[in-house]
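Hello, quick one for you while I still have it in my head. No rush at all, and the record is pasted right below.
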Amino acid sequence: MYSVALDGPAGAGKSTLAKAVAQKLGIIHVDTGAMYRAIGVYALRQGKNTADAAQVVPLLPEIQISLRFGPQGQQIFLNGEDVSQAIREPEASMAASNVSAIPQVRTFLLEQQRDLARHNSVIMDGRDIGTVVLPEATVKIFLTATPEARARRRWKELQEKGHDVLWEKVLEEVKLRDYNDSHRAAAPLRQAADAVLADTTALDFQQSLELLLSIIKDRTRT
């Protein structure tokens, strides 16, 4: 078994690429961001301020998150409800960023994430996989692109889903999330010292996928 830690900022394409890598290599893709989004969605549904730990932490005993893996990839269930689509709504993104800055939330999910890697070959994507969740990962990759490139990709994705949103607004949100993720006290976003930097600013999806596969194959052969 082996593990791949894929970290990077919001909108870098981590989840989409990790899913494709998992299908190519026949391993499990664990989207940790989806787990934080699920907690964020639950807090929003309860009318709570997702940036306020005092409001979010008491909700944790009420939350059960489970992952199921199939031909279509990872599905995430919140208290038995499939929220795989709900967590991709725009409001879930900032909620995820907010709750992920709360240490108790990170502790709540940490052991569940590590347990998946103990029993399966995985590619796990997030913000602190190589630095905190799987510091002994076989392969560590830091996936990035310029804020403008990431905002453009996110804007196109939202447009395709029928969300009429300004590109400038998406760029503003990407930059805000970058700041929040890199300045939070709990496990801030940063590149692990032994991670390979993969900048996909000038690459399309297929080129990005080939780059990741090349890095993984190179590192798992040695």
User: Anything to note?
Assistant: Residues 84 and 155 are 20 Å apart (CA to CA). The longest strand covers residues 65-70. The first helix runs from residue 14 to 25.
